[in-house]
Amino acid sequence: MNNLTSKFENVIQTSDIYGKVDHQPDASKETPRNTPEKSMPFSDQIGNYQRNKGIPAKSYKDSKVYIVGSGIAGLSTAYYFIRDGHFTPENITFIEQLQIDGGSLDGAGNAKDGYIIRGGREMDCTYENLWDLFQDIPALEMPPPYSVLDEYRLVNDNDSNYSIARLIHEQGKVKDFSKFGLNKKDQLTLIKLLLKKKEELDDITIEDYFGKSFLESNFWTFWRTMFAFENWHSLLEFKLYMHRFLHAIDGLHDLSSLIFPKYNQYDSFVTPLGRWLKEKGVKIRFNALVKDLDIHINAEGKVVKGIITEEDGKEVVIPVTADDYVIVTTGSMTEDTSYGNNTTAPVLAVDNSTSGQSAGWKLWKNLAAKSPAFGKPEKFCSNIEKSSWESVTLTCRPSALVEKLKTYAVNDPYSGKTVTGGIITITDSNWLMSFTCNRQPHFPTQPDDILVLWVYSLFMDKEGNYIKKTMPACTGNEILTELCYHLGIVEQIDNVVENTIVRTAYMPYITSMFMPRAKGDRPRIVPEGCKNLGLIGQFVETNNDVVFTMESSVRSARVAVYTLLNLNKQVPDINPLQYDIRHLLKATKTLNDNQPFLGEGLLRRVLKGTYFEHILPVGADAHPHEEEKESFLAEQFGKFKEWVASFKS
């Protein structure tokens, strides 16, 4: 590749930076300061300057890439090898255990047999890596030169997302969801958590830290149902989520901070990205199970020599050279999914003795047995009682359920616009059940008279309020009956059952990445010493990003490629809005249910009429008792200034 940079040799050959890039800079440890030594952007300095094309250190024309798993992380890895690594697409091969690509980003079925989606993705404008990728992928339905990002913006810019029924109770009554309901002590506890260092939170659970009043607040109901957190999950991950989505916290109660695709996640993202890769020449081997990697480990590092697979019942070893690369998706949130329908249940009981025995987890365990650098998979896959929940997809013809849905809808469900605006949570449900209807049609070929709804519950060990069974032991019709009971239409259940196809999915590891963890439990994206191996997905270590998002999957892919190829290109840290004083002030007021915070009145008087007046959160001035406190503060501050002046004189 010397011909690419021949005109710049006098610069790069004398540089202390070139070839020594920190590909995953950490904004939580960097003090942004311009110095003669600072030539690259700050850790979280996002924008078009980061869109430079990577310059490979050598030609990879003959190098091969093997990607284990074809979820969004794997698909993104192939994209970045092509775009930034200049790899020959025909030399990139996916090895996929299933018969279809997409991993956890699924969406399938038809109106006759019923549609199924195991989950959905709540999206954010600040997913810099996701949009970096999809601004280059041709659109699903728009003609060239438009991209997936262009389609996404077209839909969301013209159809705001929000909910008019975020919480319901008492057989379908809309519950007041305008307030978080956090007392002053819980607000202070949250602020203290934001101030804590990440290193202090190893293996601590959310319920270890927060008290009963917090766990019973509207705030926690909003949070846990939107992101699928349980009380026993990682406090560290909750903290990272708070930082990551601090800018969106004032849209948490009505979901107005979210943006959604036009269709389901498979058709919206996997289909166009997969099509682009296949058109380039990327290959995929379906029904191929990767059991282990042959890794040569010595003092000089770790080099993959072979991929041990099972295909058609036979062991096949794929040879790997030192010039080839292997990328492995570690773990799986949807591994071992059990399915049911209207008349069958997915599982009769949750059996924890089966934890971590499936192929995807065994591969990670085999890697971990070779070196501590590959992490501790057992921390995440050993207790499915604490990492599982069940989702349900409803294919609905007109019925009493559809009529009830209309009372919670922002727009007519058949209009193509926002319907429920996200999940509606039934707060007095023993299962803590939530349901949603996204924009329809949810599938490109979905008939006009069909609606697709999605339902999920967090509590797998409790009997229903109406159906006295745990959710995993229920048939689809029984789950439908429980839902109709909470909507106040159980007397019309025969009509609903007759017109609704139910597909259920029980997922043992769906929130396994939230399990309490400590430093070293998750491997680095390129583990120490690895020369041609990268790990991607939801179970790898990043500096400040969260898990359970498409953004984190794409981030892991991008970091893997840039690090292994040592490109002169960085993956910026998460969007820096957590440091923006405007969002900090807004979050402070939002957590206080939009009541003035201490010092707000004084701040308003100081900034009134200035350039910076707009940074203050929207709302009335302080209440009279707050005015008294702030007048006192202003008086004391004035006395302090006089004392300083007299001291100087």
Strand order of the largest sheet: 6-5-14-15-16-13-17-12
Low-confidence stretches: none
What profile does the largest beta sheet have? 8 strands, mixed
> Under the CATH scheme, which architecture of one domain would be assigned?
3-Layer(bba) Sandwich
Highest-level CATH class of one domain: Alpha Beta
SSE arrangement:
Layout: H1 2-5, H2 9-12, E1 65-68, H3 72-83, E2 92-95, E3 108-110, E4 114-116, H4 128-134, H5 148-157, E5 167-169, E6 173-174, H6 184-195, H7 206-209, H8 212-215, H9 218-227, H10 235-244, H11 265-280, E7 283-285, E8 288-298, E9 301-311, E10 314-319, E11 325-329, E12 338-341, H12 359-368, H13 378-381, E13 389-396, H14 400-406, E14 424-426, E15 433-436, E16 451-457, H15 476-487, H16 493-498, E17 500-507, E18 533-536, H17 550-565, H18 581-591, H19 600-607, H20 624-648
Parallel strand pairs: 1-2, 1-11, 2-7, 5-14, 11-18
Antiparallel strand pairs: 3-4, 5-6, 8-9, 9-10, 12-17, 13-16, 13-17, 14-15, 15-16
Pfam family, one: MCRA
Protein name: Oleate hydratase
Biased composition (Basic and acidic residues): 19-36
Describe the structure.
It is a single chain. This protein is α/β, with parallel strands linked by helices and 649 residues long. Among the domains are: 1-46 and 58-155 and 260-330 and 523-575, FAD/NAD(P)-binding domain (3-Layer(bba) Sandwich); 167-245, no CATH class; 347-384 and 514-522, no CATH class; 596-647, no CATH class. It is built from 20 helices and 18 strands. It has an eight-stranded mixed beta sheet, with helices on both faces.
